[in-house]
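Below is the data:
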Amino acid sequence: MTNIPETGRSTRVQTRLVVIQILVLSLLGTLGGRLWYLQIRQGDEYAKEASGNHVQQVVQPAVRGSILDARGVALADNETRLVVSASRTDLLKMKDDGKAVLTKLAGVLGMKPQEVMEKVRLCDAETPQPCWNGSPYQPIPITDEATPKQALQIRERAEDFPGITAEPQAVRRYTSPGKANTAQVLGYLSPVTDEEIQKAQDTESPYLRSDQVGRSGLERQYDKALRGKAGVTRYEVDNLGRVIGQAESDAAQPGSNLVTSIDSRVQRVAEYELNEAMKAARKEMDRNTGRTYEADAGAVVVMEAKTGRVVAMASNPTYDPNAWVGGISAADYKKLTGKDSNYPLLNRATQGQAAPGSIFKVVSSAAAVEAGYDFDGRYDCSSSYSVGGQVFKNFESADNGAITIGRALELSCDTVYYRLAHEEWKKDGGMNPKKPNDYFYKAAHQFGLGKETGIDLPNEVTGRVPDRQWKQEYWEANKDAWCKTGKKDGSYVEKISYENCLEGNKMRAGDSINYSIGQGDTLVTPIQMATIYAAISNGGTLYDPTIGKAVVSPDGKQVDEIEPRSHGKLPISKTTLAKMDDALAGVATRGTAAWRFGGWPQDKIPMHAKTGTAEVYGKQTTSWFATYTKDYAIVMTISQGGTGSGASGPAVRNIYDALYGVSDDGAIDKKKALLPEPVKTLPKIKADGTIASPKVSKDPVKDLQPTDGASEAATEQGGNAPADPQDQQATVNPPDTGNRQTRRRKRRARA
């Protein structure tokens, strides 16, 4: 050994230590920088992703609230069905992704294996229905129509069906009490879409992927209240999807119940009478076309006159809303939406619009008085009226001499209204007005036409008032097409296009004349006309039509009543309204509707009516019948159905008979009356929150049938009746009362 130090070796060691220190410090610096980037710069994003990856939720659907009629009878509720579901998580743990189990399940359920496998696959942009658009951790329903035997097979052989459950669950049901379908009023449900989930994300009522939402009718209008709030259980899972613990759980909250103003018994009668009226119209010959009426669609509204509440609303053609429960099949969907379906999903009471014909004359009468014409003045009801070489005829060229506006309403005299409208057109400046008063058009807007009534149903249409503003806008939108196709000496359509090209934006004399009797470009809906006639009945108040009457919490402790609301007053003085009321009573006793109300107890229940028959280019005439008593307003329309009193009159009379218990001889039997006066109270709410309901008749229509067999013998007698004045002109001496009775009652005899 030596005491001499080894200087060279020591230097090398020191150098190595410095290098190692630098490397370590560099690694520590890199690690620290990376940690800063992950935890500080990207911390929120990764925390969010981590939460999404490791916390999954399972939804317990809330029981949807019931929709009840005014007496508490369920129109839509829930029933317990055996639902077979599959856990996708459990299936994916199997070597074959559960194909063997699903194949075996298909055999038990009587389904095709491919059909079952398609139901458990997840929806995406490239995967067509059927598929599952809910959470992959949610049990996926395979069928809600399993039999007890099938459910027992699955549960008793659980080892053969891992991941498969068969349990009772609440499923929506549309009950049709007493055969009252009420389809277009109730609507239907279908699964929520991704777009709806996104839109509702930050609202008070967000959607979950498992939610069923209302697509139309009351189901849509009151969806938030009916839907309730689904329960959510959150589970902690590892990166393989295995559950490692439960995070938290929120219990499901059932939806509220909706009490409506619909009376299921009256609803059934209204649906039946509308359908029978359409069937009868198809047997009648159209004198204009030489073929039977098509009667392809129709609607009827029964409304409380003093509140605007809807007692019954029927639309035809119709459908079964239960077709949507559990998912609608492609075949059923095509039947409801295809070109040959005639679109039964449409509620023609609120979404069907047509020219009103003579039931519009109440508007023209009010406008004439506002313009300064005396309601009791004398006006020539001549057989025709000529303007610029064009002749506008009265029905069957009837000439009744000088009559009042009231009598013109009774007889539905067109030429009186032609003269009044033409005179005002000239006073306003004719084709070149400066400051037109436009009384006839302003009156329509004041009556609530050309806009929504405010009914609590979605997608109501506005109809149309063809005033000067509308004509200008319509001309600007269509003039290029008119000018391209119009011909001065061409066909009828080409001549019209030619005229519209030149002056389609101007209010011509013929436009005003046709408008005065509800023809031309005027469009209304049945709910609009029911609102107007109810207002005439109640003294002039235009109510927002309503179907919802109250929203009742599941426990029955909170009741939010939906009070009637007004959106205006009729532009008529009390004096004029009283005279119009008397004239409309005359329509039912000595005018165009008299032959339909023979034997009616007018002294006890004053009846008022107005008939209407609207001409539609290229189609058969539209039948309208508008009526009211002190309690109710009823309006019925049938597309391509013929005349108002001929096609719709008998059905409307039968509905009134059912409401008040009126027999053929005019006697009133209160025991047979379904609803002699509107229901003012809500059904009784029990201590447990359930709502009491009365016993439901199997079919109110059959309960109301006559028992003497007299009507049966008359079932094949005339439907559109003797020279029914096309609702433009009355026969001064209506047909024999006895014959009227047998014709009027024929529909009920077929029940």
Summary: Residues 25 and 539 are 94 Å apart (CA to CA). The mean pLDDT is 86. DSSP finds 24 helices and 25 strands in the chain.
